[in-house]
UniProtKB/TrEMBL annotation:
Protein name, per record: Zinc finger BED domain-containing protein RICESLEEPER 2-like
A GO MF label: DNA binding
Residue ranges annotated for the hAT-like transposase RNase-H fold domain, each copy included: 2-81
Any Pfam family: hAT-like_RNase-H
């Protein structure tokens, strides 16, 4: 990522500017990344591969844990949806008729 390179660079002006930009990005990212992860996961064009790719670029080895947490969130959402749809489709219990 270019910002990380500029932060480590020799030019003090660029390094300071890049550090401030990265701080702002991280502050924003903490707020929005959960929503964007789920949206990207649910989008059939991207799925989990896109998240794995970009998280690997952003966070390196640490990205594994975030991706696994996302997988867990997605599984829980699917399970919760499945349970709600099953319950909704079953409707109220009716006594069986005896002839």
């Amino acid at each position: 990522m270019a910002l990380k390179e500029w932060i480590k660079g020799d030019n003090q002006t660029f390094s300071l500017m890049a550090t401030k930009m990265m701080d702002k990005f991280e502050k924003y990212w903490k707020v929005i990344h959960g929503v964007m992860r789920v949206a990207a996961l649910l989008d059939p064009r991207y799925k989990i591969e896109l998240i794995e790719y970009y998280y690997g670029m952003l966070y390196g080895d640490e990205s594994f844990f975030d991706v696994e947490r996302l997988r867990k969130i997605a599984r829980n959402l699917v399970n919760e949806y499945s349970v709600r749809m099953t319950t909704k489709n079953e409707g109220p219990l009716r006594p069986s008729s005896q002839d």
